[in-house]
Amino acid sequence: xxxxxxxxxxxxxxxxxxxxxxxxxxxxxxxxxYADADAVRAEALALPFAPPxxxxxGGLAPIDxxxxxxxxxxxxxxxxxxxxxxxxxxxxxxGGKQITAxxxxxxxxxxxxVHPDALSADQRRPHVDPVPIFGLVYxxxxxxxxxxxxxxxxxxxxxxxxxxxxxxDIPGFDLVGGIEGRFNRxxxxxxxxxxxxEIAGAWIEGDDRFSDPRLTQRFVFFP
Length: 223
Description:
Layout: E1 16-21, E2 25-30, H1 37-45, E3 58-62, H2 68-85, E4 93-94, E5 97-98, E6 104-112, E7 133-138, E8 147-152, E9 173-179, E10 185-190, E11 195-197, H3 208-211, E12 214-222
Antiparallel strand pairs: 1-2, 2-10, 3-6, 4-5, 6-12, 7-10, 7-12, 8-9, 8-11
């Protein structure tokens, strides 16, 4: 049984690999990331979630920073992005200068449970993150979708042209490709490329969105 101190222990057999989503978007993927991802999910869903002050279609929950296994995993993920990801992608900039290394990482849990009919206009469009590189661990044994990437084609998007969650081309954005939301998969990708969670199926319209929501652990990287 996983002890609490080892809750975030990584799977020693997990290895990272690079993929190009849509032949153009560099993504670093590590499957079977956690040693006991079911325990991580159970612990996460017992936390209090609250909507953030920006248009996320669900809630966020902080993680206990004192957990020793979390500290070790954060350090390992930072090493992974600096060693495996940054050297293999085109130069990126932040704060007016080229980023040569990331030194800090923030992590929390996020769950998606907003009914498609209740989405705001911003939640019905692809978005970009306020940081250049972003990471997710998908923590769903049931199909809850991955992450979709888009190309901004410059066309205007009227609020009444998009219904529900985005799953394909819409006015203003062309679908480029996506990351499969495989259970216990870590994916690191450029946050400045328009993207959105892949939310589809009956679960998001019924009670499953509360009893068995889409859950991810987010990693936000800072230089």
